[in-house]
Design goal:
Elements lengths: L11 H10 L3 E2 L5 H8 L2 H7 L3 E2 L7 H13 L20 H11 L5 E3 L2 E3 L7 E5 L4 E5 L5
Parallel strand pairs: 1-2
Antiparallel strand pairs: 3-4, 5-6
Length: 143
């Protein structure tokens, strides 16, 4: 199944197998096109009593938990911007690099009022200070 843009959703056979065999599906992925593809199967999953759950990996679970923790500690806050920096000889894992490159064509997205929208200003680059002065960082559309 192809999602928006050139991104290839390779887990579709697994999802199909889970629906057929009535097995739950968990995936560590955090890519928006994957969420959209799995959401499109929601009616089938409910009818089969199957849970299809992407986003159980690093880029969703810890960030959502952090966002919830911050909201409890700072209830008047209305915005949150999370940034990650990969430093050192290892850098990003090759599969993460490939996915990030594929997702560049999918487009820049931010969450506003519970909806994923394209930002009105600027491209995908933002300035972030990780503690040693500001650096340019690319926005990556994660779930």
């Amino acid at each position: 199944m192809n999602c928006a843009g050139p991104f290839k959703y390779t887990a579709e056979p697994l999802v199909e197998g889970c629906l057929r065999s009535r097995a739950h599906y968990l995936d560590i992925t955090g890519e928006i096109p994957v969420y959209e593809a799995i959401q499109a199967r929601n009616v089938q999953a409910k009818a089969r009593g199957v849970m299809l759950l992407p986003g159980v990996g690093f880029d969703v679970v810890p960030t959502d938990c952090l966002a919830q923790h911050l909201k409890q500690r700072l209830p008047s806050a209305t915005r949150l911007r999370l940034a990650f920096q990969s430093v050192g000889p290892a850098g990003l894992p090759p599969s993460t690099q490939r996915t990030a490159i594929e997702l560049l064509n999918y487009g820049d997205r931010v969450r506003r009022n519970g909806k994923l929208v394209r930002p009105q200003t600027g491209g995908g680059t933002i300035s972030v200070d990780f503690g040693a002065g500001p650096v340019n960082a690319d926005r990556v559309p994660l779930g």
